[in-house]
């Protein structure tokens, strides 16, 4: 009996020792190895503190900056936003340059705000060869699952192959009429508010809500109730994951904010269940019609691609379809809505450009119905969109993880597995590449140059870069032009005195206190 007890005790001690070793190895040994590899290759940066890395300094700097901004004049509007959006990076740039190493917990990152350096390391790297930092994949799994923005390698190729046909010109054209109808309902609501003596309208909330309704109808064929439910739950998850002070990258950090992480998982499962029921209903409908269905939305095309090209290795599983729907519901409404929101802010501050765009709309569209073909000819509106995405990039950063060593020059490499953080806001506001007028709203800089005159093409990344560039960018541009054209046709607008300029990152770049505008019918 004593021998059995001794064996059990020994086994338990061995098991506990093994667990402790695994924790020590993953939280201490591996980070030290990664740190030494980066130092050997010439990377340095702000010194980290175990186990939080540089998170404490980041939180302190952010809190100090927010305190200063909240005490400034409400109507002070500056497009020079990098030091307020990423104050810690702006400070570290002064000390360490545009490429340096910093730490989220025990996860080292190479920070990049140098377009030339980015060009060097990305040359010849295929889209499938870029990974996503594991720390973000795990943290954001309730929101994106294994959707296109998170998968990599051959899985990324397979997902991209199935998804790309959904954004063909013919499918985009079919979506445009639903965009027009939904936007018209929003503008009618604004007219009613103005007629009832309420000319100040909270634009950001209205635009984001309408964009959610548009993506629900055009991409998934959802009814209003289901679309609103998914939208509300995704927004709640976004606030849970990105508006709180969590400890991403810190060992066992998920347990330090257990309530928030459990809430995010709960919301993720509820969204999954709703999307799964919609997918099952659509599959049943297609089966009843012999596999045929009108491919008027993203989901219909995804299911049709699975049906036609459903060979092993290319077909998306039901779980993957749910994740793609979740990914595109969020990405499809959030980024476009915020691009329109920031555009309305800048146009409110520059009424001359409101006039320029209205004149172009009259010349191109006249009194006819707006459609995809017509809005594609709105060149000046394209300049405005590009300039807005330069000053206020809705995707303010890009994250990658290196798959295989990348040689920078003869003396240094970026080792396999290295996390990379690309600061899009910093590059879009860099005087070295854009000139002294970098923080001024000048859409004409894009008149004859797709990159706005930037001295390095990698310095302008509104939709990412390389093979992993945003697959839905044409859909986003079409929706942007349709919604903005309809607003400009029916209203002029100016900035409300109640507006407070606080651009902030909650995964996307948004006006943290909304955008109230004074709307006037034309």
UniProtKB/TrEMBL annotation:
GO terms for molecular function: heme binding; iron ion binding; monooxygenase activity; oxidoreductase activity, acting on paired donors, with incorporation or reduction of molecular oxygen. GO terms for cellular component: membrane. Pfam families: p450 (PF00067). SUPFAM superfamilies: Cytochrome P450. The chain crosses the membrane at residues 7-25. It is found in: Membrane. Its main location: membrane. Heme binds at residue 470. Keywords: Heme, Iron, Membrane, Metal-binding, Monooxygenase, Oxidoreductase, Transmembrane, Transmembrane helix. Its cofactor is heme. PANTHER family: CYTOCHROME P450 FAMILY MEMBER, CYTOCHROME P450, FAMILY 715, SUBFAMILY A, POLYPEPTIDE 1. Belongs to the cytochrome P450 family. This is Cytochrome P450. It comes from Tagetes erecta (African marigold). The lineage of its organism: Eukaryota, Viridiplantae, Streptophyta, Embryophyta, Tracheophyta.
């Amino acid at each position: 009996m004593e021998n059995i007890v001794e064996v059990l005790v020994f086994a338990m001690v061995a098991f506990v020792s093994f667990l402790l070793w695994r924790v020590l190895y993953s939280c201490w040994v591996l980070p030290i190895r990664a740190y030494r590899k980066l130092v050997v290759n010439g990377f340095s940066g702000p010194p980290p503190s175990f186990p939080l890395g540089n998170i404490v300094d980041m939180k302190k700097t952010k809190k100090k900056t927010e305190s200063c901004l909240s005490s400034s004049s409400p109507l002070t509007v500056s497009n020079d936003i990098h030091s307020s959006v990423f104050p810690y990076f702006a400070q570290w740039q002064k000390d360490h340059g545009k490429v340096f190493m910093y730490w989220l917990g025990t996860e080292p990152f190479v920070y990049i705000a140098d377009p030339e350096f980015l060009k060097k390391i990305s040359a010849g790297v295929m889209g499938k060869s870029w990974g996503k930092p594991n720390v973000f994949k795990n943290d954001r799994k309730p929101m994106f699952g294994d959707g296109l923005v998170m998968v990599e390698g051959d899985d990324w190729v397979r997902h991209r192959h199935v998804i790309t046909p959904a954004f063909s010109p013919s499918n985009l054209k079919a979506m445009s009429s639903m965009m027009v109808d939904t936007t018209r309902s929003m503008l009618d609501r604004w007219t009613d508010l103005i007629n009832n003596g309420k000319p100040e309208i909270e634009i950001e909330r209205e635009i984001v809500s309408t964009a959610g309704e548009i993506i629900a109808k055009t991409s998934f064929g959802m009814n209003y109730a289901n679309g609103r439910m998914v939208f509300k739950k995704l927004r709640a998850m976004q606030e849970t994951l990105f508006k709180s002070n969590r400890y991403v990258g810190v060992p066992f950090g998920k347990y330090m904010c257990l309530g928030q992480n459990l809430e995010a998982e709960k919301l993720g499962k509820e969204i999954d269940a709703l999307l799964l029921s919609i997918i099952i209903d659509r599959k049943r409908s297609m089966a009843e019609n012999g596999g045929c269905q009108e491919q008027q939305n993203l989901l219909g095309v995804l299911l049709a691609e699975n049906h036609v090209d459903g060979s092993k290795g290319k077909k998306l599983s039901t779980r993957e379809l749910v994740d793609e729907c979740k990914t595109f519901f969020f990405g499809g409404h959030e980024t476009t809505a915020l691009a329109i929101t920031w555009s309305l802010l800048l146009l409110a501050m520059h009424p001359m450009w409101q006039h320029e765009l209205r004149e172009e709309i009259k010349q191109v569209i006249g009194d006819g119905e707006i459609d995809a073909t017509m809005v594609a000819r709105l060149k000046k509106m394209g300049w405005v969109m590009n300039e807005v995405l330069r000053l206020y990039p809705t995707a303010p950063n890009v994250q990658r993880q290196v798959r295989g060593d990348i040689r920078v020059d003869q003396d240094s490499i970026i080792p396999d597995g290295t996390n990379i953080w690309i600061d899009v806001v910093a590059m879009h506001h860099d005087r070295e590449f854009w000139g002294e007028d970098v923080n001024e709203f000048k859409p004409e800089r894009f008149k004859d140059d797709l990159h706005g005159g930037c001295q390095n093409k990698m310095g302008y990344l509104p939709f990412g870069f390389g093979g992993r560039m945003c697959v839905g960018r044409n859909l986003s541009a079409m929706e942007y032009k349709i919604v903005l054209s309809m607003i400009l046709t029916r209203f002029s607008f100016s900035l409300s005195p109640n507006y407070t300029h606080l651009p902030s990152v909650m995964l996307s770049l948004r006006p943290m206190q909304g955008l109230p505008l004074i709307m006037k019918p034309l």
